[in-house]
Amino acid sequence: MTTPPRPRDRFETLAIHAGQEPDPQNGAVMTPVYFTSTYKQDAPAKPRQGYEYSRTTNPTRTALQENLAALEAGAWGLCFSSGLSALNTLCDRLVPGDHVVAGNDLYGGTYRLFKRIFERYGVRFTFVDTTKSEEIGRAIEAKTRYVYLETPSNPLLRISDIAKAAKQAHTHGALLVVDNTFATPYLQQPLELGADIVLHSLTKYLGGHSDVVGGALIGRDEKLREELAFFQNAAGGTPGPMDCFLVLRGTKTLALRMDRHNENAMAIARFLESHSAVERVFYPGLPSHPQHALAKRQMNGFGGMVSFELRGGVSAGDRFASSTRLFTLAESLGGVESLVETPPSMTHASIPAEARRAAGLADGLVRLSVGVEHVADLLADVEQALAQALAPATAKAAKSKAKPEAASKLSGERGRK
User: Of 47, 64, 93, 130, which residue is 20 to 30 A from 120 by alpha carbon distance?
Assistant: First the structure.
């Protein structure tokens, strides 16, 4: 395995220029969107610049792959139609009897792909608390091919020590895979800490505008790239050129957006932690977070995701998520707009309840994707939603006692807003 030198350009410069040169024919600054399925060849089996069919290669996708590789300090990148398509390609390398050690706090779609699809093909999975390196060590066996981490994890924002996990995996001949979706390469670079493959859902922060779905794998080992590229082409889970263009647009402003996501999320987390109705707050930027010191060492910021538990349990969590005005009740994350969801009934519903609870995912958990709106407006929204979530009986009684004209006036004011 060869490790390339770090690029001289800083992150913000790479985000705008890596993989993107002005068009040599007309000087266009923005990467063209190559809407073509096939390419003229100079002679039989002699394509120009390696382009022959767009499932295999497309110039817009090439630009995005080079851009992402530069941002993650990698040697190559491969893009897919979704994050799960990228993960599926990673699992396509496995054969019956192979074994994977994975975190027990995972995105529900990842758990579903592991348990309900690849486990049927004879691949075995062991789920452990990857924040405890000794549990990773105990779970690794002779046929372990991957150690798979989410850090920060989804939805409990747990932090795993990437360097320690890499050492454990490599000692036993396994590869370390890190889902870096929550952190993004702006806040964390797993390859620099010893990981072999970085996975991204491009749908989230890298796209950044909730208008595209995509995934990526990034690494440094050329032989590994060739293996994964074979499955990328053979299975065909590749993104279209417009999707690639939209993600390229997103990476240009990634640094700017992540700075605001960080600031807003920290303010929200501090407010929630100080609120008497909140049982627990999960945010690696808080000193109360169990892995706060580790997060400070291996990250350059703490991200825009905040999870918390309300003292009222499931019903309070549901009422909160249904009462916000700026935080939109929706799945996904990482866009400029703020979102709220309840993982047990939404993003993590595919994980059995007993498995969720064993991993520490309470039924009343609420997850916030904190956007880039003005922080004062977001704080006001959280505060009013907490009030509605925790005092439904009081609110109902007050409403029933209100004079008809007062209720009419209130309705009129809301209509004007």
Answer: 130
